[in-house]
Amino acid sequence: MFNPNELVLERVRSVEEYDPATSELLGRYTQIEEPSLKTSADAQEVTDAMGSTVATFYKAQKGNFSFNNSFFSLDLAASQYGTEKAVSSDENKIIMPVSEVITIGADHTAILKYVPVGTVGAEVKYVKVINENNTFGDTYEVAAAAADGKFTIDAATKTITLPDGVTGKVFVNYERETVRAAQVTKRSDNTPKIKTLLIHAIFHEICNPNVIYAGVIRCPRAQIDPSSTEVTLSPEGKHPASYILQRDYCDEGGVLFDIIVSED
């Protein structure tokens, strides 16, 4: 009989999200730091006429699972924002903003890095000249012909033509299509979906650390807490996530989570 009690929990090696209805894998995170599993309940005290506590009843039990992912995860961000990650292809291109600083050639042209998209003949609407001291100079607007304060664009050749006499550098902002990109969109009307979590962990025997056990914490109904989602946009920043664990409302004795440790 395998009947473990006290074990050394080495680490959580992965967190997996599944669709509760179809069991389809929706997300997997493998760089887990500071995982934490908590439970809570609302206390309701019964008191006598003197205010002494006769009994305390607990209701609305729920749990919380949180962790930091070592790296920024697009899949985790999509889960937090209640959306799906879009992956571009030849059939479904993603529109991506581009900002460039381009040196103006002797022929008064600036060559874009990518083919711009948008309204034909006005794929770039404005450009700004950058002065020698790195400040913005004059603004030019797209037109049918280059003239005072105007420029033209030929999207096919990625060429912007400025009026005679304009030299130096120009700042250009435009949009391009790409077949090699991924996109996550946060909408104000989206909320995270309910998932099933499998939290895979590695345990060791206390008296013999060479003995390793596999463990899984199964959370049937977990929803990422959208009340506060913060991602530090720096190399040393982590990607935190917090899940609210709740029972199935239609199941009176619903399970918050199971902790399973196996010898084999």
Can you characterise this structure?
By secondary structure, this protein is mainly β. Helices cover 3% and strands 52% of the residues. It is built from 1 helix and 18 strands. The strands form 3 sheets. Strands 1, 2, 3, 4, 15, 16, 17 and 18 form an 8-stranded antiparallel β-sheet that branches. The longest helix is centred in the N-terminal third of the chain and has 7 residues, at 74-80. The chain starts with 6 loop residues before the first strand and ends with a strand.
Give the integer mean of the pLDDT values. Answer: 92
User: What series of H and E elements makes up the topology?
Assistant: EEEEHEEEEEEEEEEEEEE
Question: Helix- and strand-based class?
Answer: mainly beta
Q: Into which percentage range does the β-strand content fall?
A: over 45%
Radius of gyration over C-alpha positions, nearest whole angstrom = 29 Å
Overall number of strands: 18
| Unreliable runs | none
Distance between the termini: 12 Å
Biggest β-sheet strands, sense, barrel: 8 strands, antiparallel
Tally of alpha and pi helices: 1
Q: What does the overall shape look like? A: elongated
Q: Provide the helix percentage.
A: under 10%
